Amino acid sequence: MSIALPALHHVGIVVADVEAAALDHERRWGATAGPIVDLSFSQALLSGKPTDVSARYRFIDTGASQIELIEPTSRPSPYDDLLSVGGGVHHLAYFVDRVDVYLDHVRGLGEQVEVTFDASVADGTRFVYVKGLAHEPAIELIETRAAG
Length: 148
Fold this sequence. Notes:
The chain is of the alpha+beta class. Helices cover 18% and strands 42% of the residues. An eight-stranded mixed beta barrel has the order 1-4-3-2-6-7-8-5. Strand 6 and strand 7 form a beta hairpin. The chain is globular. The model has no long low-confidence stretch (mean pLDDT 92).
């Protein structure tokens, strides 16, 4: 039995400078970048350990999906390995109804998946980065069920 993935929402790309990267996308392809959003995750789990993580994000609409530019602003972060080599594609992102239910399902199918990062934003949106569902990059699963 195969794993069903919803439609791709965005591709996350780690960059050294989101502003410069967005300007490059706008110049090359005429794409319009959204606002820069600085986020901090004070109760995140990075490889299972509580860690404060912050990063700067900026989305670029490409029509059917988006590009998420990510500039880490704290260390350690889930983006360190890619930033150390100049950046690159970090993840493919998909919305799912419930992260834990989805992970239980794929594990029930025999998949060996590892959650490398688990965080929530202020509005209750939870997201995880998962290794083991693709050769590379990571898969991001996003749940928008409100916390509580």
